[in-house]
Each structure stands twice: as C-alpha cells, then as structure tokens.
C-alpha cells in the first residue's frame, strides 16, 4: 500500500473501491443536504468540507440540497444563512436543489406504492401507533387499518392531499414488516397532514413527506452516487435502501448511503434545538452571536474559513462519535491569524503614565512593524507623547525578580519606542494607583542603533498615546459553557452550565491607525490576543470582538479541576 492510499479516510477508501470495481468516475456526484431549520454549526463544517472536498478531489459535482420537508420549522432566513456559510467556507455548489422540488414526484411514487399494496393510510392516533409499534425487544402488531383496500387507500390519500382532513387524523405508512428487529422498518410513516404554509410551495400542499421517504428518493432524482450522513443515520440505511428498491431503474445510478461520526465540540452544544433555545431565551444575541458555535457566529467572532477547514482536516473523518476539545479549534485560528493579522497596540485596562522628562508639546511618530511573520506587510507610524496608557496589570509598586514588567525603580522598554523607568506613582483615596511617573532615556529609541537603544531590559510593554488614542467598545468573548460537555450530564439541564463571564464589555484605547477600520478586519492586539471589527461597528463607535486570546487560558483551569 503506497503512502497516498494510506492517507485516505475510510469514505475515500469506499469510493476508490467502487472506482476499482468499474464505477465510472464521471458518474460521481455528492451533495450537502442541510435542513433549513436553523443556522449551520461547526459540526456541519465537517460535512461541508467532506462533501465538497470529495467533489474537488474527484472533480465531481456537489449539489446543495435543502431538505425542506417540515414547514413548521423552516424559514427562508435559514436558507440564505446556509448559502452564505457554504460560500464563506470557500465552496461552490453545482446546483441548488430543494426536496420540495420533488414533492409531486414523491407523491406520484407514493401513489404507485399504494397501488402495489406497499403503502396504506393509517387512522390511528400517534399514541396508538407508538404502542402498536412494539419495543426493541418485542415485535410490533399490525395496524387495524393495514389491510385497507387499495381503492380506499387511494381515496383517503387523495383526500389528505386536498386538505379534507385535520392534522393528525391520517398518515400514510409503508407496509414493510412489523416484526423487524429494526424498529424503523416497522411500517414507517411516509406522509403526515400539515396545514402550514411552506417557505417555497406556500399552501400548495397539505401533506408533507417524512425525511426517510424524501432523503434517498431525492438522492436518486439527483443521481447522487454517494450519500454521506452522520452516524445516527446508520439504522436508517436499511429503510433508505428499501425505499430505493421500490423506485430505482437498473439503468440509472443507485445512491449508496454511508455514515461518518459526528464531531462534537467541548464547552458548547451543537443541537439545533438547543441552540434555538439559547436564541429564544436571550442567552445570546442571535444565531450569529460570537459565542455561538454556528459558522455565522465564528465568522463574526473573527475566525477565518482557512482555520476552520484546517481544523476539520486535522480531526479527520471517523467511525466513532468523539468530543473534540475547543482548544484545538482555537489553536488553528491562532496559527492562521498569526500569519495574516497586522500587529497593533491597544490598551484595555488603562493606567496613565506620565513621562516627566518628555516635553508636553512634543510628539513623535515612530516606526512600527505590521507583521513579523509577513515581510510584505510593511510598517506604519505610531504617535508617542508625554502621557501614555499601559495596562494596569503591567505595573506594580513592588514585585519579585520574576515580574518583568514595570515596577518602582525598574525599567522596561515601550514597544517601538524608548526605555522608561518608574520613579513614583499616585493613588486615590482607596489606595488604587491612578498614575505612574516615569523618566525616559532619550538615546534608547528603538531602531536608532545607539548603544543605549541596544541595551537589554527584560520587559517590553505595549502602550498608546493618550491624546491620540481612539476609543472603542471591546467585547471579550469566552467559552459559553463552563462544563466541557454541558448537554450530557444526567439530571442537569445544559442551561445550568452557562458561563456568566462568557462576555465582558470594556472600553479600549487604540492606536489611531485603527480609526478607519471596517467590519471583518482582523488584528493582533499585541500581548492581548486576536480581535476583529464587529458588524455593529460604525465610524461613530468602533466595536471589536476578541476572537481568541494569545494563549489557551483554559488549559490551566482544566488542569486545576
């Protein structure tokens, strides 16, 4: 086995095996089939990258198909958001399809099944059907309506379609095997009555097909060769194949369903139902809240499509469900932003520093490198003046030798500027330090080449000139849940693990080069983390989101549990 073959995931092995048996490469076709009942999340990114990645690998078309069979939960907003997310991740679909495109064909096939004695209208209540279906260890019993005549079934089904009946009065079921060990094969429901407007077909239909009936048949209509699903659909494969058996033509491509493991992310939830709860209960500010694991939320937070694709490639495609530590996702965005994000200076918890031997009416514009990882990024000018801000945490009156920042009697270098020495400090009535008085060495200017500028001091601080500083709202986002797996704890609601500190808003002071930024611009605030401009931002009020800190601060927390 060569190295290329070894590196294939098990899905690719399946495809290679099919090609080796004579399946034509030009007949390969894939699809990404989201249900438009919510926004896509990081778990969907694996499926997107898998299906579209296979399309790129084999030069095969990939459909974007919306499985829109439930009008009570589906909205055009979700369709639009899904399309934006797939495009943002860098993929292009061959054709845009909808399960609702096939409602008439599905109906016609259902009528054909009734005529063949393979489907019937059941008039039991949902409770009666659930009881009659049996248990995993006990066989089911036949519905009292299972042997209705073909004529009566056709008339009832036509009446369901016309809207003659109320919701819940009738369903159409496939007639398979009430003794099957696979409970999904015990006469599954194919259609239910719903008097609801559909986002595409409006009120044209009063009956809607169930997912299991729609899925494989839609794949067949589109001639999808390999239908890839998450692992929870493995028990559905038998039904998928049974339904296909009823309609396939031997001359056409028969879709093959195969399953891969769902990838769950720690410190969050990826159930659409639970994500919707977070939105509806105002725990977050919408589906694209930067704390959400949705692709829209990650985009707004400042994640890059490259970092998400790299993360997906790293975790790979597996056959077992697994919980992936969110720190791995954060690693990939740090790695990418480190290469592309310009370095800037910002102070988020300001402490005033007055340089007493620097003239009050003087100011300089100093050279600052934009990105040491990218030579082509060039440099910029930053203003320096008598009064600057540094972070409060960067000064102590007294400190031990391991504290390499500013302390009384000690020296530090100001990034791109001068070496300063703390001479004294001022406190308020409560004893809080409000100002530090320093002196600077005029010959120690960074990059000047003087002997003083080459003098080694252990600490280097970021800073901002007070009179030039630009104010901004800075949103410090953290993990939404305190528990790594909040929705798997017995006897506890996942809401109990909401992190009360998942969002803190502070006023930051930024170098003036950031005055004219636009939404989506990304930066490294030196020594603080990676930040991007939020969509709420405008020229009158800048808003920045923290994408991720420079280091994984949660690693120490987890170690101390």
Helix share bin: 25-40%
Count of discrete alpha- or pi-helical segments spanning 4 or more residues: 14
- Helix/strand class: alpha/beta
CA radius of gyration:
31 Å
Mean model confidence by pLDDT: 95
Kindly estimate the percentage of residues that lie in beta strands according to DSSP: 15-25%
- N-to-C span: 45 Å
In the CATH classification, which architecture of the largest domain applies? 3-Layer(aba) Sandwich
Low-confidence stretches: none
Could you please say which CATH topology of the largest domain applies here? Rossmann fold
The CATH class designation of the largest domain is Alpha Beta
- Report on the biggest sheet: 7 strands, mixed
**DSSP strand tally:** 29
The dominant shape is: elongated
Q: Domains counted in the coordinates: how many?
A: 4
Provide the CATH superfamily of the largest domain.
HUPs
Subunit structure: Monomer.
Keywords: Aminoacyl-tRNA synthetase, ATP-binding, Cytoplasm, Ligase, Nucleotide-binding, Protein biosynthesis
Pfam families: tRNA-synt_1c, tRNA-synt_1c_C, tRNA-synt_1c_C2
GO molecular function: ATP binding; glutamine-tRNA ligase activity
Q: Key features?
A:
single chain; 561 residues; alpha/beta; Rossmann fold; Glutamyl-tRNA Synthetase, domain 3; Ribosomal Protein L25, Chain P; 4 domains; 7-stranded mixed β-sheet; 26% helix; elongated
Could you characterize the architecture of this molecule?
The chain is elongated, with a radius of gyration of 31 Å. The model has no long low-confidence stretch (mean pLDDT 95). α8 (211-222) crosses α9 (237-247). The longest helix is centred in the first third of the chain and has 16 residues, at 42-57. The strands form 8 sheets. It has a 7-stranded mixed β-sheet with strand order 12-27-28-29-25-26-13, covered by helices on one side. A 7-stranded mixed β-sheet has the order 23-20-21-22-14-17-24, with no helix packed on it. The chain is 26% helix and 24% strand. The chain folds into 4 domains: 10-98 and 215-323, 3-Layer(aba) Sandwich (Rossmann fold), CATH 3.40.50; 103-212, Alpha-Beta Complex (Glutamyl-tRNA Synthetase, domain 3), CATH 3.90.800; 346-462, Ribosomal Protein L25, Chain P, CATH 2.40.240.10; 471-559, Ribosomal Protein L25, Chain P, CATH 2.40.240.10. The protein has 14 helices and 29 strands. By secondary structure, it is an alpha/beta fold.
């Amino acid at each position: 086995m060569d190295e290329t073959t070894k590196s294939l995931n098990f899905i690719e092995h399946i495809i290679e095996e099919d090609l080796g048996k004579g399946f034509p490469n030009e007949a390969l076709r894939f699809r990404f089939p989201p249900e438009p009942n919510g926004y896509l999340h990081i778990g969907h990114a694996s499926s997107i990258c898998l299906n579209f990645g296979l399309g790129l690998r084999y030069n095969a078309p990939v459909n974007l198909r919306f499985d829109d069979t439930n009008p009570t939960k589906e909205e055009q907003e979700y369709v639009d958001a899904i399309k934006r997310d797939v495009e943002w991740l860098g993929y292009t679909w061959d054709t845009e399809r909808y399960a609702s495109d096939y409602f008439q064909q599905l109906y016609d096939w259902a009528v054909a099944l009734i005529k063949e004695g393979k489907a019937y209208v059941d008039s039991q209540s949902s409770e009666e059907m659930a009881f009659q279906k049996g248990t995993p260890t006990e066989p089911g019993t036949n519905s009292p309506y299972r042997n209705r005549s073909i004529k009566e079934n056709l008339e009832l089904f036509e009446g369901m379609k016309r809207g003659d009946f109320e919701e819940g009065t009738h369903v159409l079921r496939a007639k398979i095997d009430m003794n099957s060990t696979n409970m999904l094969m015990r006469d599954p429901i194919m259609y239910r009555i719903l008097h609801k407007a559909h986002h595409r077909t409006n009120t044209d239909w009063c009956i809607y097909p169930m997912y299991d009936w729609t899925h494989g048949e839609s794949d067949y209509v589109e001639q999808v060769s390999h239908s890839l699903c998450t692992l929870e659909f493995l028990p559905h494969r038998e039904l998928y194949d049974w339904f296909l058996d009823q309609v396939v033509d031997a001359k056409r491509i028969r879709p093959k369903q195969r399953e891969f493991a769902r990838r769950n992310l720690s410190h969050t939830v990826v159930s659409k139902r639970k994500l919707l709860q977070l939105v509806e209960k105002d725990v977050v500010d919408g589906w694209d809240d930067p704390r959400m694991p949705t692709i829209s939320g990650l985009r707004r937070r400042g994640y890059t499509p490259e970092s998400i694709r790299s993360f997906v490639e790293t975790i790979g495609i597996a056959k077992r469900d697994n919980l992936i530590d969110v720190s791995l996702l954060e690693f990939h965005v740090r790695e990418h932003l480190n290469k592309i994000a310009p370095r800037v200076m910002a102070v988020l918890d300001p402490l005033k520093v007055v340089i007493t031997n620097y003239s009050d009416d003087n100011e300089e514009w100093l050279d600052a490198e934009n990105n040491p990882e990218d030579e082509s990024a060039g440099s910029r000018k930053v203003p320096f003046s008598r009064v600057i801000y540094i972070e409060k945490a960067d000064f102590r009156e007294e400190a031990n030798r391991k504290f390499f920042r500013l302390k009384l009697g000690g020296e530090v270098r100001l990034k791109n500027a001068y070496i300063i020495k703390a001479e004294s400090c001022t406190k308020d009535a409560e004893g809080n330090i409000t100002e530090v008085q320093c002196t600077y060495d005029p010959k120690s200017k960074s990059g000047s080449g003087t002997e003083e500028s080459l003098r080694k001091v252990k600490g280097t601080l970021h800073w901002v000139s007070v009179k030039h500083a630009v104010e901004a709202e800075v949103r410090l986002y953290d993990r939404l849940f305190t528990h790594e797996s909040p929705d798997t704890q017995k006897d506890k609601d996942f809401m109990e693990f909401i992190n009360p500190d998942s969002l803190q808003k502070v006023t930051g002071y930024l170098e003036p080069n950031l005055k004219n930024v636009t939404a989506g611009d990304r930066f490294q605030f030196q020594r603080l983390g990676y930040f991007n401009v939020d969509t709420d931002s405008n020229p009158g009020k800048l808003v920045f989101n923290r994408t991720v800190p420079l280091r994984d601060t949660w690693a120490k927390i987890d170690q101390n549990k």
